[in-house]
Each structure stands twice: as C-alpha cells, then as structure tokens.
Amino acid sequence: MNLKVFCFFFLLLEASCFIEFEISVPRSPVIGFYGEELILPCTFPVDSSWDLSSTVITWQRGLDVVHSFYYSRDQLDRQNPHYVSRTSLFIQEMQRGNASLKLDKVTQRDAGVYTCSISTNSGSQKKSFAVNIAALYSEPRLQFSMLTDGVNLLVTSDGGYPSPTLQWLMENSDITNQTQTHLRQDTSTGLYIVSSWIKLSDVSNSSLTFILHNKPLGQDIRREIQLSSDKIEKQEENRCSECFILIPVALLLLAMVLLFVFFIKRRRKAEKSKQSSSSETKSLSENV
Hints:
Strand content: 35-45%
Keywords: Cell membrane, Disulfide bond, Glycoprotein, Immunoglobulin domain, Membrane, Receptor, Signal, Transmembrane, Transmembrane helix
Domain Ig-like: 35-132
Shape: elongated
InterPro entries: BTN3A2-like_Ig-C, Ig-like_dom, Ig-like_dom_sf, Ig-like_fold, Ig_sub, Ig_V-set, T-cell_Activation_Regulation
Main location: membrane
GO cellular component, one term: external side of plasma membrane
C-alpha cells in the first residue's frame, strides 16, 4: 500500500514538473503589415536553475529553418536564404523567458505556420501558430464621366492585400451584381490594384455607396456618392456656356474674313481703274 502511495506521488510530481514547462505562443493567427517588422511572440518559463548556455531556441516555417540559437549565440548556418539578415532574437530578454522572433520587411512570402521550439535544463516543448500578411488599401479615387445615355462611375484603390470584397449600394438596395470589378496584382510587390465601375442610365437624385472590406485588417472603406439632376444640368449649362463663348468668336472670325475679302476686291478694283486711266492717257498723248 505504501509503495502504491509512493508511486502515485512520484508520478504526480513528475507530471507537475512536465506541466510546469509550458511555452506560450498566440492562439490566433498573427497579422503582419506588408513592408514592416513583425514580432512573433514566444515565451518560456524560467527558474533559478536556468542557464543561457543550456538554452536552445529554434524557429521554423514548415521544414525551413528561420532562426536558431544555441551555445549562447545565434547559429545561422542552416538558415533558409529567404530570411538572411532579416531575423533576430531578444537575447537580453531571454533571462525573463522571451524567445520572440523579430522579422524585418515582411512580404506575402512570409505567410505560413511558424513553430517555436525551446529546450532548457527545465524541459523542452514546441508550439506552432499561423502568420498572415496584409496591407491597407489606399483612399479610393472616383472618376465621373458623362455618356449619351447616362453616367459612368469608376472607383480605384491600390496597395492592398489580400484581395478585398466590394459592395455597391443604391439607397438601401444592393446593386453589386450590376457592377464590373477588375483585380490585378503588381508584379513587383504582389499587392492588389482594384477597379470597380458601374453605368447608370437614371441618375436623378441618386445616392450610391461604395464599400471596400479588407477582412484580415478589419479595414472598411465606405464612401458616399451623391448624384442629382442639378449636377447634370449644371454640366449641360457649362457646355452651353462654352457654346455661347464659341459662337461670338466664330462670328468675329467670319467678319474678319469677309472684311479681308472686301479689302482685296476693292484693292483689285482700284488697281484696274488706275491701269485704265493710264491707258487712256497714253492714247491721248499718241494722238496729239
């Protein structure tokens, strides 16, 4: 009986020691901003027996070695070339159990599942979590063009990641299915350029809403577009004003041309009269 009790307490002590060494990593995906630095959190328990020289820290993404630390210093011989000169640990904070990794200038290629592995004289463990990369979309730009049978609206935004979801509303009705959307990725950055346009035949006092949603960053861009017949009439008035300006100019040019023609004809007539007078004078002189 005493042996069973002893074994029970031994197993309990062993289990408690095993549970005591528990590293911590994020439970939900970590979001990194394109082009900026990203901290991948990972902490481990430290007690009075902890020693830096016996601490081994390894970061991996899949089978790729992102960063390694042992023998009290970084060991980067097996580091994947994609991460060269872009990773670092907080060595001064390891004594407080900080094994977090700093990753510089993140891009879409850095997305994936990362694993933090730690081994000390107190125990060892490894845990994984997901990393996603995202970028904010720019302020939408609106282009407005009149057509013979209506109006065309074009909205563009760029520099974002991943691909967004778009929505168009007229008053409270969803008219997204009446729009056309084009997505293109920049060949050098991989960021998205989005263009969305809609053609409207009736714009009298219309209220439109353009919505762009970037889910990973919780970015919601909502822009109201007000269209009214007054604006259309104003544009037509501007066109008429241009016509009223052009008409007098055209009449002035016509008057100048007519005046020039009149001047030329009068000059030719005067030259003919002069020639006739000279001929008559010459004839009289010969007769005398």
